[in-house]
Amino acid sequence: MSSRRSRVSEEEINELISKLQSLLPEARRRGGGRASAAKLLKETCNYIRSLNREVDDLSGRLSALMATMDNNSAEAEIIRSLLRS
After folding, report:
1. Where in this chain does the record put each BHLH domain (predicted)?
2. Which of 15, 21, 47, 62: disulfide with 27, CB 3.0–4.6 Å?
């Protein structure tokens, strides 16, 4: 095993931080203002947690909807085909 580590330049880190900032809704609302890397990482973690909660909520709602449908109905088949996509 090699003990050499891949070095990332400060320029590459800044570029990655800028890309990450462009993906976060909160950072986009701030406009051109640049947040610290620590604040940006904290916002990223919060955003990912928020997305996970939203996925859980939507999954629960979909499960409840599917439970009320006739499994052989056209609507149920459409939903199943969309989920396979």
Report:
1. 1-51
2. 21
